[in-house]
What does this fold into?
Amino acid sequence: MAVKKAKFLSELKRFRKVGLDTSTLIYHLEDVEPYSELTEAAFAAIAQGPPAAILSTISATELLVQPFAEGRKDRILACERFLLSLPNTTLILPSYPIAKEAARLRAAYGIRTPDALLIATTLAEQGEAFITNDRGLRRLKEEGLVVLVLDEYV
It folds into this structure.
């Protein structure tokens, strides 16, 4: 299975700001093939910018659950170092306007609350695209958000 990294990067670099789904972080940190090849390219492109990345603290919560459940302090520290050292990336706390927008998105599209919060955060920060592996989120193009689905590049 050939990874279409050049096509992915070409599309990614069209945007000034992109939101990141938690799956993107997991694929990168756990070196999940074939996606980690794309996430490595994405994080390198983000480091150079544009685009800049938008990351919700909700993703930090999702990312840290398993290391906490396993009592893996080393993995907790590795996740924290990764999250807090991502270049050209803004880590955004939830706010009432983001929560309200997430509720609207959840009602309109029937998406899960964590996804709605991540997308509402991306929209609140003027993100133009969202990197995920959830094809169901493509419906959000009606919100003016381009959804880049990693599976479409492998």
